[in-house]
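Researcher: Here's the sequence for the chain we discussed earlier.
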Amino acid sequence: MSRPVSRPVVRSRDEPVTGRVGGVGHGGAVDLFADDPMARPLTYPGRVPAGSGVLMDDAYVPLRVEGGERDRWRADGVSLGALLAREGAEPMRGRHRVVAVGSNAAPGQLRAKFRDHGVRPLVPMTAADVTGVVPGVSAHVSRWGYVPAAPIAAPGETAGLFVLWLDEEQLAALDLTEPNYVRRPLAARVVVAAGAPLTGVFVYEGRHGCVADGHGRPRRLTSQRALVQSLLEASPSLRHVCGDTPEDFVANVRDDTVRAEASRILQAEHRTGAGRVGLRERHPDSPSPHR
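Model: Thanks. This is the structure I predict for it:
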C-alpha cells in the first residue's frame, strides 16, 4: 500500500496576488522569494509553495487545477489559456513537463535561474502526486555551496512534488543550470488533481549517485542545515576539509579545490545508487528533449 506524503493547504484563491502564499507551519502568508539558495545555501531548497500556481516574474499566482482541460484551469481571475495568451506565452499544449525534486520547486530559485539566462520566468507549476520516486540527496556539493537533491526510487511510496510546465526556451535554460544531472523521461506515475496520469514527464537524474544513510539506503532529503551537520558528524575527513559546522562548510566549499574534495569524500564514503528513476528512452508522447 502506498504511503501518501501530505502537502500544506494552499491559501484562499480569492486573496490578492502578491507573490506570497500561505502554508501550514509558516505562521500565515510567507514570501516565496525571500530565500535564495544560491545566495544563502543553508536555505536550500528554498521556499516551496503550498499548492499549484503560476510563476509570473515577481509573483506566484494561485492556480485552480480542476478537470483535464489544462487551458481551463483558473489563475488571476481568468482561464490559464487566456492568461498565457495575454502574456504572449507558449500555450499549455506546447509545454514540456518536468518534475522538480529539489530547488526547482521554489519560485525564487526558478526566477533567479531563468533571469540569469535572459529568460522570462513565466511557468505554470502544478502540485502532483508522484508514485515511486522521492527526493534524495546527491553525492556532490554544488558550486553554490549546498548539497542538492536528487531523485531516488521508492517503490510504493507517493510524494507530493511539483510539475513544471516549460516552454522550449525555459527548458533549454534549465538544462544549462543542471550540469550535474541528466534529464530523462520519468519512470514513475504522476497525477495532478486526481486526474489521469501525465505522460511524457521528465526528471533530472543525478550523475553522481546519492548519499546513503547509516543503513546503506539512499538518504531522504531534509533541511540543508540538518543534512550538512549530519554529514559532518559522520565523517572526520569531511570535518577536516570543511570545518565543524554548517556555516564553516558553506564558507569553505566556496573554494573550488575544497568543494571538489568534499564531493570526492561524499562519493567515497557515503555514495549509493538511486535505483531506477529515469527511463533510457524518450517517451513517444513528449517533444524531443534538449541535452
